[in-house]
Amino acid sequence: MLRDINDILDITSKIEEVNRERDELASKIQKINATSELALRESTHRDKIVTEATKDILNNAKSLDSVIELKDKYGDLSILNNLQEHFKKQKKIDLALKDLENVESDINSLFLDSIINTNYEVVKEIADKLNVFVSEYLNLDSKISTFLQSLIKKFNEEFLENYISVISEDFEKELLEAKWDKIDYMLRIDDNVLKLRALSTNIYKFSQCYIICNENDNNKLQKFRFRNFKSIANNFKIRFMFHFHETNLNNKKFKLQIYFQFLNSYLSENLYKCINIFHDHRNAISESLVHEQFIDHILEPIRTKIKFILMNKKKENDIKTLLILISEILTTDKNLTKSYKYQGNSLINLIPSDIWDLWVSYHIEVSTKQVDSLFNVNNPNANSNEDQLTNSSKDFIKLFNKFFLNLEAFFELSLISIHEEYKLILFSKIFLNLINKYLSFVLEINILKDGNKHSKQEELLQTLIKLENLSIVNKMLIEYSNNLIFIQLTDLVNKQNKSNSQKINSIFENVINEYETNINHDIKDSIIYRIQKLLKESLLKYFKISSKTWSTISDNSDNANKNMHISSELSNTVKLMTNINTQLKNLDIDQSLKFSIGNEILNITVKYFTENILKLNIFNRQGLMQVKHDYESVVMSLDILNDDYINFNHKIMLESLAILNLKYDFNAQEFTLKEYAKGNQFTDLKDYLSIKYMNDSEIQETLFRIVYGNIV
């Protein structure tokens, strides 16, 4: 649209601009058309090439070589790469099948030779080839797998097993004739022994040629590869069957132990003889291999017999025989491990869980009855039999050891997880039950007769007996904590307890803590309390000695203290303390506990002499000396003092007496003045009397007793 004069004047240039744009547009359209035609021609050409290449590949990709030629022609196409891998695999399969056919021919040739002419090296070579095929080709192709497994079956079952069966039969005849396992057989490495060794080694070598294709063959392989040991154990099998084939288990005179005694006797006589005869280092038959396999194969008829007994006695519900059998199995397994170092398949693994339940329940029931019969305060005889408490720790230890010996073989065996639970159940229901019942028994029993008509000394004696018995048992529990069986049980508990904060150091930890709480606190405190009552009662007459007496005791000479006698009022106290000291010394308890009790008695003695004698009376010089002599006599009867022991209260008592004696020291009168006592500075006094234990307030209090006339 023309808007003004300028548009009219510029119309020519506008027309020219429009023409230029039209020409440019026409040129672009022409180029686009030309490009489209070229693209169409190129696309048509490309389709033609692809079609021809596809037809070429389909018609000519018939072999590995032709595929390689096609790759040279068309490049690295994925379809050609796949075809190349396919033909490579097929070529490998074809070669493998051809090789397997050759192996089949080799296997067939084995059947053409007589037994005598069978060559081990030939058999070993075939076995090696088959093993290579198993490792490299078994899963490569179903055709190979089927063919290979058929060859292995033919090699293993039709040739190898039959061949070894024949030569084993000959070997077993030689073994019987040699009578090598007779008790009177004298072992000499001669031609006969070398012949037996060679026959055994030959069977072993052929047995190692057995081929396995999958894991299901492993069990069979393990048995077959030690076929020579089955033959070596044949002598035992024959003798065992000869002795026991008509055994009647219902015959009361027959004992199951005879089976296991026979086994032990045979091993004792022949194990190391067997090792010496049949080991062969040149053919990888070591002494340890002979040792393990001989025992393992000797056990086979025993295992068969055990299975038979378990099955029949379970049907008959003959629990007694089953329990005896389990005990014998445990004992035998322990003996095999300890005496013969056997680490193979235990006999105990033959026992099913339901029979284990019977065995565990039986032991718990029997142990509970035994514990209750000994350590039950409700037992009519419990509170009337002094020996039942006095000897209770011996009874406990005897019973604990009995339980331990009965179950030791079970606890020592490395068992499956279900048996770990049995271990913990047995420990809890038998050992912990015994320990807890015994503690309750000792704490609750009262052997004092006639109700309340008994002396305080009898009460003390009963408490001392309780202390001794609990201490003996606690000491035994601490020792058993270091036993390997209980260490393993501790580890088992910690393994089952996933919380690290609740790990225990010993499976006895809680019960030991409970015992020690009673020993070191409750019972000890009770003993100290009873001694305190006895001591106070014995001192009553002594407490009644008046100041008049203490302050008027005559001083006949300067050496009177050398011949000084204990106050007559204290004679019973000294006898009492001497008797208590003897009782403590004779107790089978820790020395630290004896010391702790003696230390507390000394503290009580100091308190009585200080509070009831020194602070309540007036003394002259001889009276003060008498009190000191009396005090030292009582302390001496306790027999607790020695060079390594310091009781602060005792030292303070002696220092107090020394300060009071300053009244009679003419060289120390300045210390007895009121002004000095009020001064609170006692360094020179401490130096003068070598005071180490009294503090200033105690010194001041003692000095004031002089000042106020308590010392005359």
From TrEMBL:
InterPro entries per UniProt: EXOC6PINT-1/Sec15/Tip20_C_dom2 (IPR042044), RINT1_Tip20 (IPR007528), Tip20p_domA (IPR042041), Tip20p_domB (IPR042042), Tip20p_domC (IPR042043), Tip20p_domE (IPR042040)
Key word RNA-binding present: no
Coiled-coil region: 8-35
Pfam families in the record: RINT1_TIP1
One of the record's GO cellular component terms: Dsl1/NZR complex
GO term, biological process aspect, one: autophagy
Keywords: Coiled coil
Highest taxon, organism lineage: Eukaryota
Name of the protein this chain belongs to: Uncharacterized protein
Record organism: Tetrapisispora phaffii (strain ATCC 24235 / CBS 4417 / NBRC 1672 / NRRL Y-8282 / UCD 70-5)
Gene name as annotated: TPHA0C03600
